[in-house]
């Protein structure tokens, strides 16, 4: 165990984590030059195309230093805030972390968020400045930020692209990060499940970090969180492909192929132990095994409804979701019906980028053509009988007479930006119902901490932030519970018929402005008919905004070459009666594009 080092690479998105992992694999000889390709640990084509990491990727490397062969277990992590749960569980399996800072951009929001989590877990942190070979690199500025904000005075300087300084970094990892420790008094085996996936040939595969004891092929296993029994069919390590070793000992990171067929039986953060063959109880200490810290069930924060463009594809869509969930268990789905868009599914996701990735995978890997409605969040409803309900869309809102209060999800945001954009960003946060909780000046940077409703974030806050700061501001957030707010249900009526698919939950104070914008957009989208169409936005029976679509007017006098005015008036009155009848009995065909444009606005 003294020759094992477990560490992760953490950084803001696009600061060079995957490139650094590539260089380490090259230098240690884990991957040959013939096998080498950029972002080798990013197995999904979408990760390569977008240049981002979505899933964590472990790899085992062997490095020789002073006649000792060290085992380096690296976990490459995502940088985007939507996948911060991946970073959290990666760090739980490590003793140290390489904190990467881009020399051209300095410390960003996710840099600080990942640093704080690693510090909370008590990991050894090695600060590293990357991209020092770029002409625009501000190495001294990055050093000053690391000293002022993080308190490290001697960061390592590397170029992950050229390999400059990576040898020295590997030596620092060995010298500074402690080897794993184990509870020698504890006879039982304990392993932390930090990821899992489903293989169509092998079944459920658990990615584990063994903390105590060892796991061998054919061992009987027990998962404490889900209380599931399993068998170890194959055991091995990632180098970077799966390589069977037959056993994993304390301190090692690898995989266990189980005989399970349902991915829900292995949850991330669960504790895996070995059963006694005779008694079918956890071995050691008479079956008393305590779970490892880190078990946390994932909760979706953003809900998006997806509908197939061709209604006949609904069964293919259902099959595709069940298959995709075997690879990504972090989303949920439930059937849904929309009067405008037909049958579909409502997906619970970790963020907007996660929603984008899931939609792209469904379309690319399963050949589906999908329509995505606007994202929404879950609300808590406290009824007059003190019952607490959770709803995900406005249609499920109870009658106002039964509602005591509506609670919306809140987030604690951390925004990093240059001082010159401070006024514009603070005004933006106030316009989105933000409450300032803290402000810190870090050299030329400012860190703002705001309490903000989650629904404001998914209604374009991030895009507006990039706009007012000319792209210099970065954002990190975490959920901070629910808070009571003055919210109301805004209904849309077209020709006095309520269109449920367009209902939404909005702040009462902003409802007049939202209502006005909504009816104006609908007015420009819904086609004209032979009769006048009224569009109204209302709260209960109170109309907040109205717009009218004028009717087409047929020229009934065109066939008359002359005649007195009474004949013309007679024809016009006949036309007016006909239009009145059409208005009473005619149906309005609202095009699908109208719903989508409103939902996505």
UniProtKB/TrEMBL annotation:
> Which SUPFAM superfamilies does its entry note?
EF-G C-terminal domain-like, P-loop containing nucleoside triphosphate hydrolases, Translation proteins
Primary residence: membrane
Binding-site positions, GTP: 14-19, 130-133
E.C. designation(s)? 3.6.5.n1
Q: Which CDD domains match?
A: LepA (cd01890), lepA_C (cd03709)
Per its record, the protein catalyses: GTP + H2O = GDP + phosphate + H(+)
Give the record's keywords alphabetically: Cell membrane, Elongation factor, GTP-binding, Hydrolase, Membrane, Nucleotide-binding, Protein biosynthesis
Q: What does this protein do?
A: Required for accurate and efficient protein synthesis under certain stress conditions. May act as a fidelity factor of the translation reaction, by catalyzing a one-codon backward translocation of tRNAs on improperly translocated ribosomes. Back-translocation proceeds from a post-translocation (POST) complex to a pre-translocation (PRE) complex, thus giving elongation factor G a second chance to translocate the tRNAs correctly. Binds to ribosomes in a GTP-dependent manner.
| Family the UniProt entry places it in | Belongs to the TRAFAC class translation factor GTPase superfamily. Classic translation factor GTPase family. LepA subfamily.
Q: What is this protein called?
A: Elongation factor 4
Lineage, opening ranks: Bacteria, Candidatus Amesiibacteriota
């Amino acid at each position: 165990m003294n020759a094992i080092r477990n560490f992760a690479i953490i950084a803001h998105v696009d600061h060079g984590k995957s490139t650094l992992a590539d260089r380490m694999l090259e230098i240690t000889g884990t991957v040959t030059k013939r096998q080498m390709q950029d972002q080798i640990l990013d197995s999904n084509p979408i990760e390569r195309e977008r240049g981002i990491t979505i899933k964590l990727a472990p790899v085992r490397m062997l490095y020789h230093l002073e006649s000792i062969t060290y085992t380096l277990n690296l976990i490459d992590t995502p940088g985007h805030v939507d996948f911060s749960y991946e970073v959290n569980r990666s760090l739980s399996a490590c003793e140290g972390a390489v904190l990467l800072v881009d020399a051209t951009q300095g410390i960003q929001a996710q840099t600080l968020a990942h640093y704080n989590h690693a510090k909370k877990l008590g990991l050894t942190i090695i600060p590293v400045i990357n991209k020092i070979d770029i002409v625009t690199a501000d190495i001294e500025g990055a050093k000053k930020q690391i000293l002022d904000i993080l308190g490290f005075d001697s960061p390592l300087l590397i170029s992950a692209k050229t390999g400059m300084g990576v040898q020295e970094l590997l030596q620092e990892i060995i010298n500074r990060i402690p080897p794993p420790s184990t509870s020698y008094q504890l006879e039982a085996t304990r392993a932390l499940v930090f990821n899992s996936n489903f293989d169509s040939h092998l079944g459920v595969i658990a990615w584990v970090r063994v903390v105590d004891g060892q796991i061998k092929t054919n061992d009987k296993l027990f998962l404490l969180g889900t209380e599931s029994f399993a068998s170890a069919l194959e055991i091995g390590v990632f180098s970077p492909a799966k390589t069977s070793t037959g056993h994993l000992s304390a301190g090692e990171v690898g995989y266990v192929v189980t005989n399970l067929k349902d991915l829900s039986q292995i949850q991330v953060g669960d504790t895996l132990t070995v059963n006694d063959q005779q008694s079918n109880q956890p071995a050691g200490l008479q079956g008393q095994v305590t779970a490892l810290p880190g078990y946390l069930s994932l909760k979706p924060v953003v809900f998006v409804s997806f509908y197939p463009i061709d209604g006949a594809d609904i069964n293919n869509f259902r099959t595709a979701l069940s298959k995709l969930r075997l690879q990504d268990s972090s989303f949920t789905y439930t059937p849904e019906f929309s009067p405008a868009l037909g049958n579909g599914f409502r997906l619970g996701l970790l963020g907007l980028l996660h929603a984008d990735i899931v939609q792209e995978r469904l379309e690319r890997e399963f050949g589906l053509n999908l329509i995505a409605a606007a994202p929404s969040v879950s609300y808590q409803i406290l009824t007059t009988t003190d019952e607490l309900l959770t709803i995900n869309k406005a249609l499920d809102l109870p009658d106002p007479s039964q509602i005591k209060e509506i609670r919306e999800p809140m987030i604690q945001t951390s925004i990093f930006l240059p001082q010159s954009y401070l006024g514009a960003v603070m005004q933006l946060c106030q316009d989105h119902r933000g409450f300032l909780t803290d402000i810190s000046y870090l050299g030329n940077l400012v860190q703002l901490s705001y309490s903000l409703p989650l629904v404001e974030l998914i209604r374009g806050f991030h895009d507006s932030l990039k706009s007012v700061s000319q792209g210099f501001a970065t954002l990190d957030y975490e959920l901070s519970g629910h808070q009571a707010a003055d919210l109301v249900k805004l209904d849309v009526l077209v020709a006095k018929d309520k269109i449920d698919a367009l209902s939404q939950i909005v702040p009462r104070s902003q409802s007049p402005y939202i209502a006005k914008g909504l009816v104006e957009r609908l007015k420009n989208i819904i086609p004209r008919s032979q009769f006048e169409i009224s569009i109204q936005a209302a709260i209960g029976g109170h109309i907040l905004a109205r717009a009218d679509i004028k009717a087409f007017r047929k020229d009934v006098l065109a066939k008359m070459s002359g005649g007195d005015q009474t004949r013309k008036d007679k024809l016009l009155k006949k036309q007016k009666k006909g239009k009145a009848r059409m208005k009473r009995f005619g149906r309005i065909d609202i095009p699908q594009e109208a719903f989508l444009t409103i939902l996505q606005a």
